[in-house]
Amino acid sequence: MRSIYFDYNATTPLDPVVRAAMLPFLDEVFGNPSSVHHVGRRARALLDDARDRVAQVWRAKPSEVVFTSGGTESNNLAIFGAARLCARAGKRHLVTSPVEHHAVLHCFRYLEKHEGFAVTYLPVDAAGRVAPDDLARALRPDTALVSVQAANNETGAVQPVAELGALCRARGVLFHTDAVQWFGKLPFADIGQFNAVLVSVCSHKFHGPKGAGALFIRSPLLPDPILFGGGHENERRAGTENLAAIIGFTEATERFVREPAFDAVKLAPLLQRLGALVDSLEGVQRRTLLSTNPKLETRNPELLPNTLAFTVAGADSIALLAGLDLEGICASSGSACSAGSLEPSHVMLAMGVEPKLANALVRLSIGRQTTLEEIAEVERALPLVIGRVRGGHRR
Q1: Structural domains counted in the chain
Q2: Model confidence pLDDT, tens digit, residues 312-339
Q3: From CA 35, how far away is CA 38, in angstroms rounded?
Q4: What residues make up the domain containing 53?
Q5: Considering 86, 107, 202, 337, which one is annotated as catalytic?
Q6: What pLDDT digit, counting tens, does each position of 248-271 carry?
Q7: 86 is annotated as an active-site residue
Q8: Distances from the Cα of 24 to the Cαs of 20, 174, 245, 248, 270, in angstroms?
C-alpha cells in the first residue's frame, strides 16, 4: 500500500544531506567533548564549531545557544528554570495560554500545583490567538514569566509574539516562546524577531534528527538548571552532548531556517485544494481559520503555510484517523488516546468548540514532498472515510 504522509507537523523525514553530515559522528568522531585527550579535544572543537554555526544563523552569541534533547526539554528548561530563578526575588506569577503544547502546559500546571505559583491562562479567540491587550491586563508587579507559542501545532495559528514580547520587555517580565513549529516553516531573520529572552527549537520539525534541539537564552539570563551532573553547556544543561544529533541539528538549521524548507508559494495551491475539499463536505468545519487580514505581509504571517485542521460532526478522531490510515493516508489530531479513552483537543476547547466536536478533530499538515497526486488521493478518500465512520457511529 502506498503511504501518503500528511503529518509533517509531527515530524519530518531526515534530509539526506543532514544524514550524511551526521554519519562521521556515529563512528569516526566518537570522543566525549569533555575529555581532555586529543580525541575528546577534537569532539569539543567540532561541538564549539556547531554552536558558532547555529549562532551565526540566529544572529546570536554562541554562549546564548544551549543544545538540548529537543523541544520538550527546551520548554522545561525555559519554564522551570526561569520561574524558579524569579521566585527567589519574590515573583511567583506566571502567564501562558490554554492552547500551548503539553510540554508547556504541564510545566505550568506542575508549578501551580506543587510549587505555589499563580498562573493566569489568557483567553484566545475563535482562531486560537492571544490578544496583546489581554496580556497587558494580565501582567502584575510579581509576574515572573510569560510563555506563548510562536505557532500552534494543531491549527497552524501564528501568535503575535513580537508584540507580546515587547509588552513583557517594557514591564521587565521574562518572555519565552515555544517556536518549534515556526522554524523551517515561516520567514526567519534573526532570533531577536520574537522579542523573547527564551526561544525553544527542535530539529526534527525541519528535516533534522529527532533527539536534538536548542534553547536560546539571551545573555546574561541564567535560568536554574533542571538537570544536574557535570558542567556541560556552560553549566546550564548537564549531560554529555549528543554530538551526532547536534551536527544534524546544525546542518538542518543552516539549510532550512533562513530559506524555509516549507515553501509557502509551492504549498499554497495544495493547501487551497485541501481547504476547498473540507469546505465542500457536509458537517465538516474548518478550524484553521483564514487570515483576519488578507493584505498581511508575508513577513508577518497569521498561519503556518502547511496546516489545515477540521472537525467532523457525527464522528471521532480515532475512527477518522484509522479510516484514513487504511487508505494509506497518515494524518493526526489533537486528541490523545489514554487507557482506551479519547480526550477532546484542549486547543479546540479553548477556542470555544463544543467537546463532542473537539473530539472529532483531524489535522492535515503537508510538506516539501507533498504532490498534487497525493492531494487528489485525499480528495477521493476523505469523503469515503467520513461516510464509513458516520455509518459506524449510527449503528
Answers
A1: 2
A2: 999 999 999 999 999 999 999 964 443 3
A3: 8
A4: 16-256
A5: 337
A6: 999 999 999 999 999 999 999 999
A7: no
A8: 8, 39, 11, 11, 38
